């Protein structure tokens, strides 16, 4: 008889997105994204971080002050990193992401041909960025689904072998 308590596809892929977020150096918000093809293959994965060649220890991670002295002009968002890290054709793929995408990522998601977004947290739901994202997703027929519940996936590598 097969195991009962295995991960669902949604749990598996959002779990991968969360694992990826653990690589983020952002001290405030760690976001992870995972792109999955129609036949359930992972074709892209990423987290919010600086572009290649930009030193994590040299660039700022703060939120306030002069814009150029904050992280905002420099950080590549998780969704965009997942798209850029993929070499695959992303048409009709699903993007799993821990936070609802901002409008800049929404544009990249649409242009890449991704047709479904599954997200977990929508703490930014009423921000202008998220409102613009929804306008564009609706116009471009990109569906967006919030995962129905939060859950814990426990990974203990020592115990797992
Ligand atoms: O869609 C997103 N994807 C994404 O990776 N991020 C990243 C950029 C920043 O590193 C961080 C947001 O930082 P903060 O919550 O401190 O403003 O999350 C932020 C958004 C905004 O929704
Ligand atoms: Zn974004």
UniProtKB/TrEMBL annotation:
Residues bound to Zn(2+): 77, 102, 105
Cofactor(s) the protein needs: Zn(2+)
A GO term, aspect molecular function: dCMP deaminase activity
InterPro entries on file: APOBEC/CMP_deaminase_Zn-bd (IPR016192), CMP_dCMP_dom (IPR002125), Cytidine_deaminase-like (IPR016193), dCMP_deaminase (IPR016473), dCMP_deaminase-rel (IPR015517), Deoxycytidylate_deaminase_dom (IPR035105)
Record keywords, A-Z: Hydrolase, Metal-binding, Nucleotide biosynthesis, Zinc
A cellular-component GO term for this protein: cytoplasm
A Pfam family assignment: dCMP_cyt_deam_1
Sequence intervals crossing the membrane: none
Catalytic residues identified in the record: 79
Ranges where the CMP/dCMP-type deaminase domain occurs: 8-136
A GO BP entry: nucleotide biosynthetic process
PROSITE patterns: CYT_DCMP_DEAMINASES_1, CYT_DCMP_DEAMINASES_2
Family to which this protein belongs: Belongs to the cytidine and deoxycytidylate deaminase family.
Name of the protein this chain belongs to: dCMP deaminase
Taxonomic source organism: Breznakia blatticola
Top-level taxonomy: Bacteria, Bacillati, Bacillota, Erysipelotrichia, Erysipelotrichales
């Amino acid at each position: 008889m097969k195991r009962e308590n295995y991960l669902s596809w949604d749990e598996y892929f959002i779990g991968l997105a969360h694992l990826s977020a653990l690589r983020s150096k952002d001290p405030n918000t760690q976001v992870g994204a995972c792109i999955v093809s129609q036949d359930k293959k992972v074709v892209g994965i990423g987290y919010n971080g600086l572009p290649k060649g930009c030193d994590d220890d040299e660039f700022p991670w703060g939120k306030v002050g002069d814009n150029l002295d904050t992280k905002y002009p420099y950080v590549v968002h998780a969704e965009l990193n997942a798209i850029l890290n993929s070499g695959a054709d992303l048409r009709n793929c699903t993007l799993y992401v821990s936070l609802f995408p901002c409008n800049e990522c929404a544009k990249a998601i649409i242009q890449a041909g991704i047709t479904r977004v599954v997200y977990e947290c929508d703490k930014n739901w009423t921000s202008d960025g998220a409102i613009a994202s929804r306008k564009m997703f609706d116009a471009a027929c990109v569906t967006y689904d919030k995962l129905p519940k939060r859950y814990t996936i426990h990974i203990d590598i020592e115990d797992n072998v």
